[in-house]
Amino acid sequence: MSNYSKAIDDIASVCGANSTWSAINPESAARMRIQNRFQTGLDIAKYTAKIMREDMAAYDADSAQYTQSLGCWHGFVGQQKLIAIKKHLQTTSKRYLYLSGWMVAALRSEFGPLPDQSMHEKTAVSSLIEELYTFLRQADARELDLLFTDLDAARAAGDKAKEAEILDKVNNFETHVVPIIADIDAGFGNAEATYLLAKQMIEAGACCIQIENQVSDEKQCGHQDGKVTVPHADFLAKINAVRYAFLELGVDDGVIVARTDSLGAGLTKQIAVTNEPGDLGDQYNAFLDGEYVNSADDIDNGDVVIKANGKLLKPARLASGLFQFKKGTGIDRVVLDCITSLQNGADLLWIETEKPHVGQIAEMVNRIREVVPDAKLVYNNSPSFNWTLNFRQQVFDAWSEEGKDVSAYDRANLMSEEYDATELALAADERIRTFQADAAREAGIFHHLITLPTYHTTALSTDNLAKGYFAEEGMLAYVKGVQRQEIRQTIACVKHQNMAGSDIGDNHKEYFAGEAALKAGGKDNTMNQF
């Protein structure tokens, strides 16, 4: 929120004290100041951390007050998302941005497309945060510039009521700048490396950093095989490193999301250090698969043996040198991971699951909440899930348990288009529609995100355009499928020159050079066709 007249008065006072600044128009300078509310990334991090903390408290009071985000891989994508939210929903409240490490690897690395294995340049993460906020700040400047243009027109027309209406909009302007939940993967190295990158991310504007309990040099996408976790002490050291980074930079209420991949991770790189029975290291080691030995004769060359439960245990070790967890221990390990993280500095949890199932998530969260009652999750509504098939099968199974006749459906083939208009498919779609509200209410999910939706939307829209443009439709494919839709749906970037800042630049030229300014947006500007 700004006070337009006070901003003008403040700058007029400064200019009035400098006799050589007579060419400076205080109102023009005030407009530029209002259009650039956030001076640094740290200003953004402090502002958005406060928002996120308030949203967390609101959720604790009412689970219907959950938050959402979409992953964005470019500043323009994030900008257009927030512009759309303001246009259609009138407020950005409880809507965030998500920065996906998967998309940074796939789309932002100088090596070219990479898998989600922390092989990309780690500075690409902080660079994308800075880029996203640059575009969001430009969205502020553009919208305010349009208001200032309307204000000048109202004054020129002598319309006092319109002038007052526009001034109210300026003074109550809602910024496009919202919290970013930023993925730091497994920390890109040791705890010191994690601290250094966390600092860069916070300085770029991140108020919330998500870190996972996989090993840095063996990190895998959460929805692929071969995941390897680390002992709790190693992970907690990195949580501490992120907290130190927040505190050093004065973002005292910065948010840390502790992600556990233990549900799908069956391996560990190392045996945890333990000093006494029942400590964290001992609890971690208790999940190791292996066999108890009675003498040295049971030990082969190179075997590792530890003491567990008062006996000698030879952990199962793979040819890779990795150790294996017992089958069926994933949920127990997740619960221990989450409780431990919350008791040691994390604010929110992320449990990576293999399917979107409210009951499965609730089972784990309810156990966690027995120890930490206000435990809350950030949940990945992942494109790696086949949502249609998963929910059709959930409905099929529920109907079967209820004794409802499902003989008309082939459970293994429920993805088939032939089922799209059936009662089962419609019931499944309704469950998908309400999944976020249901999971927020029943499974402790504070924040719902989709990690890489704009990766898929870019591919889909490009495919649709190319299919027609390079075939018989020719230019009609673009006009009918893109430009006409932009006009009909009042998509702001149909006036692409304005979106890129041309009108802001014209106004600045007038501020700087007065009537001598050479403007681009005159009568011969083709943007006037829209």
Automatic annotation (TrEMBL):
Name of the protein this chain belongs to: Isocitrate lyase
GO terms of biological process kind: carboxylic acid metabolic process
Sample GO molecular function, one term: isocitrate lyase activity
Cofactor: Mg(2+)
Catalysed reaction, written as an equation: D-threo-isocitrate = glyoxylate + succinate
Keyword Cell membrane set for record: no
Organism listed in the record: Porticoccus litoralis
Binding site for Mg(2+): D183
InterPro entries hit by this protein: ICL/PEPM, Isocitrate_lyase, Pyrv/PenolPyrv_kinase-like_dom, Pyrv_kinase-like_dom_sf
Active-site residues, as the UniProt record annotates them: C221
Cofactor binding note: Can also use Mn(2+) ion.
